[in-house]
Model the fold of this input.
Amino acid sequence: MEDKAYLGGLEITFKGTRERLEAMNHYDYLLGVQGLLSQIEKEIKANSVEYEGSEFFYKPIREVFGTKDITFPKDEAREEGQIDMLREEHWYAYNANYGTSEERAFIEMFARRYSSFQKKYDDIYVIRNEKVVKIVDAKGRVFEPDFLLFARQREEEHLMFQIFIEPKGNHLKGKDKWKEEYLEKMRSERRTFSIDTDKYLITGVPFYNLSNENEFISSLEDVLNIESL
Done:
């Protein structure tokens, strides 16, 4: 025989002989509720994923970046890859930039500002991140910043800046606002770690967008402590 009880819309079924079911008391119902709650706890844990932020870890660049195939919808501007502009630019790690319009605009802006960075920094390099470096936040969201900027501060020879940069079109700025907040968090924390005698400062800047280019330049120069031209 069966007897039923309910908890918040959930059904508990008790099975046993007629005599046992008729003799059920409050303690029996308590055990039934505890069993149901225990099962609910197991199901919640089985279907949930917990994330915990961790410190950055380092690897040599040669072990992270390399040759990679790139695919994108047919687009004459992207296919051109800014090859003519980047052919002689030693600060750009690759020989082309097959990026979006905002990513290409960022590279054009950086080329114009490069001389101002040279006043205070050596070993200046921009590396395009094609889904290689991934950042996972505490909620499990994956962030792949489009560019990494490295610059060694001349006044403090062993300090290298590593700056995450994300060009973003207007149509995506709202949806990806959490990424910009993460970059701002990195900027405020100013995390550093040492490799041998070198020290790396990990930081970020707000989204780059052609419409807010002047604000972006100001933020980047502020991070690098460079006076505007």
In short: The chain has two domains: 2-46, 61-223. The CA atoms of residues 125 and 193 lie 19 Å apart.
